[in-house]
Amino acid sequence: MSHEHVSYLELLTRGAATEAYDRPVLLARASGAGPEALAELEEAKQLALRVRAELEGRRRREAELSALFATAHDLAGLRDLDAVLRAIVQRARSLLGTECAYLSLNDPAAGDTYMRVTEGSVSARFQQLRLGMGEGLGGLVAQTARPYVTDDYFDDARFQHTRTIDTAVRDEGLVAILGVPLSLGSQVIGVLFAADRRARVFEREQVALLGSFAAHAAVAIDTANLLAETRSALAELERANDIIREHSGVIERASEVHDRLSELVLHGGGVHDVAHAVSEVLGGTVEFTEEGAGTARRAGGHAVREGDDWVAAVSAGGETLGALVLHGQPDLDPVDQRTLERAALVTSLLLLARRSAGEAEQRVRGELLDDLLDAPDRDRRLLKERAARLRTDSEAPHVVLAARIDRAGGTVDPDTGGRESADRQRLWSAATHLAATRHGLASARDGGTVLLLPLGPGESAADLARQTARSLGGTLREPVTVGASAPVRAPLDHPDQVAVAYEEARRCLDALRLLHRSGQGAAAEDLGFLGLLLADGRDIDGFVDRTVGHVVAYDRRRGTDLIRTMDAYFASGMSPARTKDELHVHVNTVAQRLERIGRLLGPDWQSPARALEIQLALRLHALADAVASK
Question: Most buried by CB count within 10 Å: which residue of 235, 320, 371, 414?
Answer without folding.
Answer: 371
